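ok new one. same drill as before - structure tokens go in, u give me an amino acid for every spot. 397 of them this time. try not to just spam alanines like last time pls lmao
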């Protein structure tokens, strides 16, 4: 019962966060900096969860502008979400001198071009996951941000939640002995994405490994504190749209499984599926996201590591001490029980931009290695990497 009330409270606060007063110079304190102004590239579906709602409860963030390819679409989005400026075209937003930080919420294949252009315009960037289409592009993006002295953060938002950090602390404490194997699952039911979703478009950087698999690869590296040494095996099911035309190219993974070797005889596997069929042909399935870590002296299972604010558990079976369940909606650091992973992420980004030490941060190598292993799984599967950005290729010509 208490957990149901807790869930309802969290849901209410997520949907209706207390709007905080935005910081800035006041008669009593002229030195307080103005809030950071964010601009969103794309009237994207992820915008509200990824930035707009978290910004409401952050005193130092204002969502100032949105750009869409079509001005009317940007205006409608701006009106709906209370955003002051709307631009018809992404470059126009980058040319706005008031924008401090750009949120790149475009399809994966456009991350490279528009993040590079944003950095060129002198903006810090919160870039949606996965970083780009290839590791080469990813490295170039971080190198350029470094060169410009700007902050670039990939939106691996799940990494900022205290529950995930607690799961890792249990593994790192050694109470379960040496880690032997981790399995990371990211599965949603059939119909979760429509057939014309960007995730099913090869040219836009689609594929289920790109989309949900990037979390899984990032997670296995994080939980094991190691880089894989080899992709041992893969198997996949390709996406089949309804009424596929005869010339339809089956190059998009709807399901991807992969097994990796890690140093010290450890292994890892991932199971990603964007279309779990109904049970017995008609019973709908719940999304299944989480991971299981098998250790020498027990196992740890975390359910829902990607949206833990809604509900999660960390179940620990210690061969010597027995079993227990932990839930961490609020950690020892900053945050409220109802903070989504995106709100934690925004807190860290703003801390970084303001010169404060963020509680959690992701390194360049984190992003580069995640992309490297995505590409290696695609290579092993025979599906191949998503195409390099034309903007990247032009820069190398
Ligand atoms: N962090 C997270 O939890 C999540 C992250 N994501 C990531 O965010 C990004 C966007 O995903 P999502 O919001 O679901 O995507 P949408 O389908 O909403 O597309 C995002 C934007 O892409 C723009 N766009 C530009 N070119 C094209 C094109 N050729 N075809 C289609 N759209 C185009 C559209 O902009 P315009 O408005 O200009 O037309 C659209 O608003 C992806 O990288 C995805 O991986 C997605 C969901 C969750
Ligand atoms: O980033 C994401 O997180 C949740 C998933 O459902 C979605 O496909 C993905 O883009």
């Amino acid at each position: 019962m208490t957990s149901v009330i807790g869930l309802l409270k969290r849901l209410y606060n997520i949907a209706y966060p207390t709007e905080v007063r935005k910081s800035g110079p006041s008669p009593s304190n002229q030195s307080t900096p103005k809030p950071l102004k964010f601009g969103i590239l794309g009237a994207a579906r992820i915008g509200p969860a990824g930035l707009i709602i978290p910004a409401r409860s952050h005193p130092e963030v204002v969502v100032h502008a949105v750009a869409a390819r079509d001005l009317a679409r940007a205006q409608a989005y701006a009106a709906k979400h209370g955003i002051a400026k709307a631009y018809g075209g992404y470059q126009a937003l980058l040319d706005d001198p008031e924008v401090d930080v750009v949120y790149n919420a475009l399809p994966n294949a456009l991350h490279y071009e528009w993040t590079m252009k944003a950095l060129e315009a002198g903006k810090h960037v919160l870039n949606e996951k996965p970083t780009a289409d290839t590791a080469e592009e990813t490295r170039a993006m971080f190198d350029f941000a470094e060169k410009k002295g700007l902050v670039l953060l990939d939106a691996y938002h799940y990494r900022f939640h205290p529950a995930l950090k607690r799961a890792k602390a249990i593994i790192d404490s050694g109470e379960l002995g040496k880690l032997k194997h981790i399995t990371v699952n990211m599965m949603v039911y059939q119909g979760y994405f429509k057939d014309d979703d960007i995730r099913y478009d090869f040219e836009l950087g689609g594929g289920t490994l790109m989309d949900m698999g990037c979390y899984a690869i990032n997670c296995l590296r994080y939980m094991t504190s190691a880089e894989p040494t080899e992709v041992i095996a893969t198997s996949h099911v390709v996406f089949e749209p309804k009424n596929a035309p005869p010339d339809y190219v089956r190059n998009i993974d709807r399901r991807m499984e992969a097994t990796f070797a890690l140093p010290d005889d450890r292994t890892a596997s991932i199971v990603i599926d964007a279309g779990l069929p109904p049970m017995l042909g008609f019973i709908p399935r719940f999304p299944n996201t989480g991971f299981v870590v098998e250790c020498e002296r027990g196992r740890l299972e975390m359910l829902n590591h990607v949206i833990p604010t809604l509900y999660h558990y960390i179940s620990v079976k210690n061969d010597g001490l027995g079993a227990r369940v932990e839930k961490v909606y609020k950690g020892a650091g900053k945050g409220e029980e109802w903070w989504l992973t995106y709100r934690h992420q925004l807190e860290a980004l703003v801390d970084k931009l303001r010169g404060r030490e963020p509680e959690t941060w992701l390194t360049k190598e984190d992003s580069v290695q995640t992309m490297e292993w995505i590409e290696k799984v695609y290579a092993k599967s025979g599906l191949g990497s998503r195409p390099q950005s034309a903007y990247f290729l032009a820069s190398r010509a």
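The two ends are 62 Å apart (CA to CA). and btw The domain at 158-381 is CATH 3.30.360.10 (Dihydrodipicolinate Reductase; domain 2).
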